[in-house]
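Narrative summary of target 7.
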Amino acid sequence: MSNLKLKRHGDLNQIMALVQLLANGRKDIDEGRVIPAADVFAQLEAMDRADRNEPDDGPPAAGRPLRP
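Modeled conformation, tokenized:
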């Protein structure tokens, strides 16, 4: 019986963590702390090319860094 309670407690913790992530994401969107998806993917591709030592095609579309 206590094992079942522990599982439910763990499930509740996971649900609460997901709710908090969603709330934080909504707050970031509402406050304008977003990066367009195209910029993110362009930066990831540039980082991937750099890891493979391939030539870079230039900066991402908006030129904003993914990392601060």
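The chain has a mean pLDDT of 81.
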